[in-house]
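Internal tracking record. Fields below are filled automatically when a chain is submitted to the structure queue. Please do not edit lines marked as system-generated. If the sequence contains nonstandard residues, flag them in the REMARKS field before resubmitting.
Queue: standard
Priority: normal
Entity type: single polypeptide chain
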Amino acid sequence: MDLWAQWWVWLGAALALAILETLAPGYIFLGIALGAAITAVVVALPFGIGLPALLAIFAVLSLISWFVLRRVFKPADDQSRIVHEDINK
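SYSTEM-GENERATED OUTPUT FOLLOWS
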């Protein structure tokens, strides 16, 4: 059986990415880790999904979870300053 068709491989990758997120915070690796964890659930279901389809599912789930995390953890008050005029003129 192919290694990518094992659910524990995807769960191990999710765990490794979650640990990597603690070393380099920014919610980037956490979204990818969530995508890998959800892909582990998909692989555990009794479907015969090939590697290209699994990678596509993983990519889409990672992107969706990254967008969700970005929306959930965005700063409440964006204090960015927009300069409309150049002060050096």
